[in-house]
Amino acid sequence: MVISSLDELDKGVQQLLQYLGDKRILAFRGEIGAGKTTFIQSFCHHFGVREQVTSPTFSLVNEYSYRDERGRIQYIYHMDLYRLKRMEEALDFGIEEYLYDDHYCLIEWPEIVEEILPEDTVWINLQIVNDSTRKMLIL
User: Fold this and answer.
1) Rounded to the nearest 10 degrees, what angle do helices 36-46 and 9-20 cross at?
2) Containing domain of residue 78, as a range?
3) What's the CATH code of the domain at 133?
């Protein structure tokens, strides 16, 4: 999928959600500036998240809430593991509790925890094509 402008992000989110089905763990790869956080912002806004969606580079995890179609509170966990050097650091903050929950878990820089991610994790590679265009590969 090619996203040529910020206006196309919502369409990209909708296409991703059609693909996901019941899958809830999304692992985002891409160089700095590829649009990982920007895509996650659009993902959260699609569900009606009202909080400001920012990269949790220093807090490691941000939790966002929204109400589903039945009015129940649901959560989206947004992780940024860029600063982690060892998997033990992820285990120390309780990453497994997030991974085996029924809520969406969106992970930037997931490589450090790849071996503990569930088998059905959806891998999303974002590539910079030019200043305004990104290519998104879903694996």
Assistant:
1) 70
2) 2-138
3) 3.40.50.300
